[in-house]
User: Which sequence fits this backbone?
């Protein structure tokens, strides 16, 4: 199996652990969920709903298997190309995660369409939207500035430059 992420599972939430502590009773959407390990961590900390999407069918198959025995969590994982479709239309979430996904979409999606996607996701975020850049400066800071603009109704309340392995991280909160 091919490696798809930077860093190991134990550091994927570096800069975002405040959200893990707030997961209890929350509904979570993980965009670009990979194999579902971040969602699994949130479920282990009390998230009651975990939905995830990724473009890789093998990753979605793994995520479904990982959650198969978690009875206290409603989980759904689907193959979704975010340049072509909005995941789980009509659903709202307390926490939306976009970890190391935005920069990949930005490479293939026109800027206006990407802004529309982010505005749609912001409108479906009830509490927190979390993002991790790709580690490259100043591109990650430019992405964060675009998110400041596009995540209407959300205000950035946390920025972390601590992770040298995984890069810039930010959390926006519903105002």
Assistant:
């Amino acid at each position: 199996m091919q490696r798809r992420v930077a860093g190991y599972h134990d550091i994927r939430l570096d800069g975002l652990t405040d959200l893990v502590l707030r997961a209890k009773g929350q509904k979570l959407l993980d965009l670009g969920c990979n194999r579902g390990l971040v969602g699994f961590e949130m479920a282990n900390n009390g998230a009651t709903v975990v939905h995830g999407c990724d473009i890789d069918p093998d990753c979605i198959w793994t995520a479904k298997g990982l959650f198969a025995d978690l009875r206290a969590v409603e989980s759904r994982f689907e193959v979704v190309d975010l340049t072509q479709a909005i995941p789980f239309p009509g659903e709202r979430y307390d926490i939306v995660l976009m970890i190391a996904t935005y920069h990949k979409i930005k490479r293939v999606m026109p800027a206006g369409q990407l802004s529309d996607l982010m505005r749609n996701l912001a409108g479906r975020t009830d509490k927190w939207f979390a993002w991790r850049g790709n580690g490259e400066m100043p591109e990650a800071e430019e992405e964060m500035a675009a998110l400041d603009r596009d995540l209407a109704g959300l205000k950035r309340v946390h920025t972390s430059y601590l992770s040298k392995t995984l890069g810039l991280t930010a959390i926006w909160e519903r105002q």
